[in-house]
Design brief:
The chain is mostly helical and 262 residues long. The protein is built from 13 helices and 6 strands. It has 2 domains: 99 residues, no CATH class; 155 residues, no CATH class. The strands form 2 sheets. Strands 1-3-6 form a 3-stranded antiparallel β-sheet. Strands 2-5-4 form a 3-stranded antiparallel β-sheet.
Length: 262
């Protein structure tokens, strides 16, 4: 791999001596073949420069695993850089091509045909919602709608958009957050728009119970995780209202959530 492009990137980034040393250490680890070292770049480059990392890695001829780490870092830890990354790629299709170069592997439990994906947002039109970059597939044992509802329900007038796309059209997969994220190569043109507040609340509560019962495999800690705190608040509200009938209609048990077999 030609690391000169990475060295030039480091030289152009304004940072402290400590940060520059960390970047140089990361560069050395990359030379040694350590894909996880791209995390040092995501951590220390800052939002203004993180988006430049992926095209530089492509210029350097980096293997797919390095690209995956860099794209995951932008999506998970520096999501404000994602629009800049897409712009550098020449738009959504260009970014999708970069993701295909990164060879993301989709989880085995997704069907071979059409896959349900969902987005939860506020203060945007359905068309703007559908054009977004962050789409969820839930996590094993949860419905994609529920995960989208969970992230939207904390704001006034939430909206959830649900679409069906072929598995082959999904160009990246990120499992470091819940719900798990994917990106369809093209903007979905057919989708369901859900604005029913009761339906969105019920979906959000179902997902909150999944998080609490570790169905998604991530430790539940409302004291340190803001999304777990939201889950705890949703559950407390739901149970505090004594909405037994509503919980039953939503398919939520007070005691447990059935853990899926896959």
């Amino acid at each position: 791999m030609n690391v000169q492009a990475l060295a030039r990137l480091i030289a152009t980034v304004p940072c402290s001596i400590g940060q520059r040393i960390a970047l140089q250490v990361g560069l050395r680890l990359i030379v040694e073949g350590r894909p996880d070292a791209t995390g040092a770049f995501v951590d220390y480059l800052g939002a203004a420069h993180t988006a430049r990392l992926v095209p530089v890695l492509i210029e350097a001829g980096a293997p797919a695993e390095f690209l995956r780490q860099a794209i995951r870092g932008v999506v998970l830890f520096d999501h404000k850089s994602l629009p800049g990354l897409v712009k550098l790629a020449g738009g959504r299709r260009g970014f999708a091509e970069w993701c295909r170069r990164a060879e993301f592997e989709l989880p085995a439990y997704l069907p071979e045909g059409d896959v349900t994906i969902a987005r939860g947002t506020v203060n945007c039109t359905p068309e703007e919602n559908a054009a977004g970059m962050h789409w969820g597939i839930g996590c094993p044992g949860s419905d994609p709608f529920d995960g989208a509802a969970f992230f939207a329900c904390g704001w006034p007038h939430p909206t959830v958009v649900v679409a069906r796309v072929h598995r082959s059209a999904l160009v990246y997969f990120v499992d470091g957050v819940l719900p798990y994220e994917v990106l369809p190569e093209d903007v979905p043109t057919a989708y369901e728009v859900v604005t029913d507040q009761d339906r969105i609340m019920e979906g959000a509560v179902r997902f909150a119970y999944h998080k609490k019962n570790l169905v998604c495999g991530k430790p539940y800690n409302p004291a340190t995780d803001r999304f777990d705190q939201l889950a705890a608040e949703l559950i407390a509200f739901w149970e505090g209202k004594g909405r037994t009938e509503g919980m039953a209609a939503a398919g939520v048990s007070r005691d447990q959530v059935v853990v899926p077999s896959f």
